[in-house]
Protein: MurNAc-LAA domain-containing protein
Organism: Microlunatus ginsengisoli
Amino acid sequence: MIVIDPGHSGRSIRSRTTNGLLDFDYPNQPEMTEVFDISSCVADGLRADGYRVILTKRRASDSVSLTERAEIANRAKADLAISVHDDHGQGPAFQATYSQRGVSSNGHYPTMYRGTGARRTVFDQPKVAKASDRAAKIIARERAAAQGRPVGVRQNSFDGRAPLEPGNLALVELLADVPWVYNEMGALTGGSTTKRLSLAAETGYAKGLLDGVEAAVPIPGRSGSTSAADIRSCLTARR
């Protein structure tokens, strides 16, 4: 069971988690449409290859809180969940995966958390974090092969990004009880922050995500057959 979480919501959302953390999301175009199309085509490919797949949104314009997204994956007891984002403020050299474990320094992993003071919430699920770390490294490897550029396993930072809660872990990953890998890619195209990604860039990203999920969560006795051409055809039809 794979859960795919296309980033952003059709309207701004401000609510509170049970720990009092601000659950904040907002519309962001063209990213919102791009990553929904990419996620949908990855889902189609995974299903064709024998996986069960749930998307956290039915349409690009749906508004779903980060709490609800995590709950969808938790209820499904997902073997792996992935968030799919792109950043039109970053050039294509920026490619990243983020796990629930962070990045080790001399073999030591940091405390993963969001919030300050009484709201500070720590992700304290070592087995889930370890599985997330493993999957993030595999997805980064497969994305690099499909996209033809290095993909780093990084640690996020939400410090100084008000109104977002400070910390080093995406809120949806913090609230999840299942392994979750958050994905980003630089989407600045031709110097424009509003120009849609090329079909080739979307295809490479989608193919890397699909191959990464299938390598991280293999189905015994089966191998994937969804090709880059299949994904390109799917994305072309959605444009």
Helices lie at 31-48, 66-76, 126-147, 171-174, 199-216, 228-238. The chain is about 35% helix and 15% strand. The CA atoms of residues 64 and 207 lie 25 Å apart.
